[in-house]
Amino acid sequence: MGRIELTSSQHRILTVLINRYQAADSPIPAKEIAAEIDREPRTVRNQMSSLNDLGLVEGIPGPSGGYRPTNAAFDILDRENIDDPETVVLARDFDRVDAIVDEISFPNVHHPTTCRARIRFQQSVQEFDEGDAIAIGAMPNSELLLAGEIEAIETTRNQIILNVVRVEA
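RESULT FIELD:
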């Protein structure tokens, strides 16, 4: 199969579907996705038809039906379908939040005064705001602690860019 190029709308819908599906482990109705992305359920169903044709979602009929992402959907978004993911401790404005971090990368550690981290989560990052101070620590298999201020939020990729002020390992 060739490379699939998604529109920004398809990418966003697929991201929300995977986020909600991983949290619920059951089919997600179009109206739930529509509410999160501020679109009409009919619009979401139309996009789901296209995503189904691409082999990225499956429609589940019935009263408790909805949509379920396929393995190809996880692949195209570079996500892992983990059955029992580990959570990390994340504190935002001194409130603890349990989060599942997919990946942390440091795109520019070569400069001593401007270190940034790109942090990708397995759930929506819509509750965060630019400027929020956060700390992430107690990661599985490491003793890494990051603290800083959110510089940018990429909601369609479940990522934040953190201006790092403290790193401990």
